[in-house]
Design brief:
globular; three-stranded mixed sheet; alpha/beta; seven-stranded parallel sheet; Rossmann fold
């Protein structure tokens, strides 16, 4: 893509991810010049019309110092979202060390502002369904799962251990759903598995879901309106898993899932299942971590984001419909009343 005539020039890491590819589309439509830092093996076809592609890796400090120059702001979304066993070293290297590298490059090359996409899982859970708001401190020992621990460490560095010369703002999205999920996220996998008939039982619990398009809007607002060294929860709407699956069934004219698995049983079997799937090199539908998350406090407050960023969320059922429509068009083929997995070259 040729450089555009614009006052703002942005760099986006993680641009081929679910949030990232939606973000660059929106920035492009707003008339900004957008550069995307991508890895050599990334599929850039989904973002190529909207960005100037720059190859690099956030774990390569020298490369970052070369390319992170002349930007009004950097949107840092690159990271490993991994909830399976055996990925601790990779998680720390990318999520923590990679973030440190990018911060150093921004500070050295005098980038004015960095917006970091963290996660609600970086925030300590409160008991008895108390309202969860943006914290001032982060303790990796008080969050569940190694992914959450790395996000807590990285978020603390971004907000509390960064030079005053670099403005930093953090956003904390909840569970991302919505279209343009080209890499099939964990939640996207649940939707497609259900449509393929692989999901024949449900678990107790629920979660807070937010539309990817609303999150992208929130990130852009954070770059413009967000206060330096502040964080904003970008949550949407809470829904029970049974209610979610029932709505999908109604929308797709399928039979509702009626079998409920006991929480203690599925939790006790989860480690064994993860081990088997790891040997098979397949992604498990649920992990010990994801099961516990579905039964944790997901009462997240987005009041601060609404007040200071003008954050808005669309109806959750619209998001669910759009998630299903994208998954069925991109990953599946409908044969009669059934879906089959599409072969994607």
């Amino acid at each position: 893509m040729k450089p555009r005539s614009t006052d703002m020039k942005y760099l986006v890491t993680g641009a081929t991810g679910h949030i990232g590819n939606v973000l660059v589309r929106k920035l492009y439509k707003l008339g900004h010049e957008v550069h995307a830092l991508v890895m050599q093996n990334d599929d850039i076809s989904i973002i190529e019309p909207f960005v100037t592609v720059i190859y690099g890796d956030i774990t390569d400090k020298n490369r970052l110092f070369e390319v992170v120059k002349g930007y009004d702001a950097v949107f840092h979304l690159a990271g490993i979202v991994e909830i399976r066993l055996g990925k601790k070293k990779l998680l720390y290297k990318v999520n923590v060390e990679g973030t440190k590298n990018l911060l150093e490059a921004c500070q050295t090359n005098k980038v004015k502002r960095l917006v970091y996409t963290s996660s609600v899982h970086a925030i300590e859970e409160k008991k008895n369904n108390q309202l969860i708001e943006e914290p001032l401190e982060f303790n990796p020992k008080k969050v569940k799962g190694y992914y959450a621990k790395t996000k807590a460490i990285a978020t603390d560095i971004v907000l509390n251990q960064t030079s005053k010369d670099l403005e930093t703002v953090v956003v904390y999205p909840s569970g991302i759903i919505g279209p343009y999920d080209y890499k099939l996220s964990n939640f996207g996998q649940v939707f497609t598995d259900y449509l393929l008939g692989r999901l024949t039982a449900y678990l107790k619990g629920g979660y807070n879901f937010v539309d990817v398009r609303d999150v992208a809007d929130g990130i852009i607002s954070a770059a413009i309106k967000g206060k330096d060294k502040e964080g904003y929860i970008l949550s949407g709407h809470s829904i029970k898993i049974k209610e979610l699956l029932d709505y999908i069934a109604e929308y797709t004219h399928r039979k509702k899932v009626k079998t409920k698995l006991a929480y203690w049983f599925i939790l006790s079997m989860s480690y064994f299942a993860e081990f088997i799937f790891m040997i098979m090199r397949r992604r498990p539908l649920f992990t010990h971590y994801s099961i516990s998350v579905l039964n944790s406090n997901h009462n997240f407050s987005n009041i601060k984001a609404k007040r200071e960023l003008g954050f808005k969320t669309r109806d959750i059922y619209t998001s669910i419909k759009d998630t299903i429509d994208f998954a069925s068009q991109h990953y599946l083929v409908k044969v009669g009343n059934k879906y089959r997995k599409k072969i994607i070259n």
